[in-house]
Amino acid sequence: MHNYKIVVSYDGTRYKGWQSQKLTDATIQGKLEKILERTVGRPVKITGSGRTDAGVHAKGQTANFYLQDYYEPEELLEIFNQYLPEDIAVRSVKEAGERFHSRFSATEKTYQYRIHTGKIPEVFERKYVYSLAGQLDLERMKQAAEYMTGKQDFAAFCGNRHMKKSTVRNIYEIRFEEVKDENAFLMGQGCGEIRIIFRGNGFLQNMVRIMTGTLIEVGEGRRCPEDIPVMIASKNRELAGHTAPAQGLMLMEVKYD
């Protein structure tokens, strides 16, 4: 058996998420598996590093699959990109070690969440940002984010309320980048963009979006940074903030030893 590792980029706008589903073919995994089945003449299961939600994007999703017969990686790369729709692309194909597993072998994941702030809605990037009409207090958000880093039980930030596996994760860094629209500021409209970068050894279902929603509520003044430790200690999803919309989230990179 030959184990192949692929890196995939996709615009998740019109898809029901990464994971294939019986009632729809509008999934990233489903599109990739259909091409492989057509190529090798039998069903092939592709395993992703994680299951991005409906509407979430990826620049560097990693996946792997096994084939009985050997195919040149360059040949598979060409086949994928010849038949994939224009909003999905395979960026690379490499033969991996037999024991490589895209999910279990991952050591670090990076997500980015983009928030557009200001009075004027974002038109051209609207599929990739969460638009807020007001401004956010970035310093308060940074203070709150400090409480979210480190190895902790993040059950309060998990969208699966019946999670049976461990909800402990190690968040290495939460970093903020502010991009201002200078023309809008000169016109008194105050438009800009806040990008939140999350790095960790793994993330729970909806975790980044719930953390983002909570940080937004802190930035709006509806919560205090000091509320975060209370949320984490409670392990209660009801105490954390709202789940931020899917379109602002992108899986940027998955790292392996």
Instruction: Decide which structural class fits the backbone.
Output: alpha+beta
- The number of E-state strands comes to 10
For the record, give the distance between the C-alpha atoms at the N and C termini, rounded to a whole number. Answer: 22 Å
Q: Would you state the CATH class of the largest domain?
A: Alpha Beta
Give the number of domains.
Answer: 2
Q: In CATH, what is the homologous superfamily of the largest domain?
A: Pseudouridine synthase I, catalytic domain, C-terminal subdomain
Supply the number of helical segments. 6
Q: Order of SSEs, N→C?
A: EHEEHEEEHEEHEHHE
**Which strand-content bin applies to the residues?**
25-35%
Rounded Rg: 20 Å
Overall geometric form: globular
Largest beta-sheet details: 10 strands, mixed
Topology:
Elements: E1 2-10, H1 28-40, E2 47-48, E3 57-67, H2 73-83, E4 88-96, E5 106-117, E6 130-132, H3 138-148, E7 150-153, E8 168-180, H4 182-186, E9 192-200, H5 207-219, H6 227-234, E10 249-256
Parallel strand pairs: 3-10, 5-6
Antiparallel strand pairs: 1-3, 1-4, 2-3, 5-9, 5-10, 7-8, 8-9
Written description of the protein model:
- The protein is of the alpha+beta class and 257 residues long.
- The chain has 6 helices and 10 strands.
- The protein has helices at 28-40, 73-83, 138-148, 182-186, 207-219, 227-234, and strands at residues 2-10, 47-48, 57-67, 88-96, 106-117, 130-132, 150-153, 168-180, 192-200, 249-256.
- Strands 1, 2, 3, 4, 5, 6, 7, 8, 9 and 10 form a 10-stranded mixed β-sheet that branches.
- β2 (47-48) and β3 (57-67) form a beta hairpin.
- α3 (138-148) runs parallel beside α6 (227-234).
- The mean pLDDT is 95.
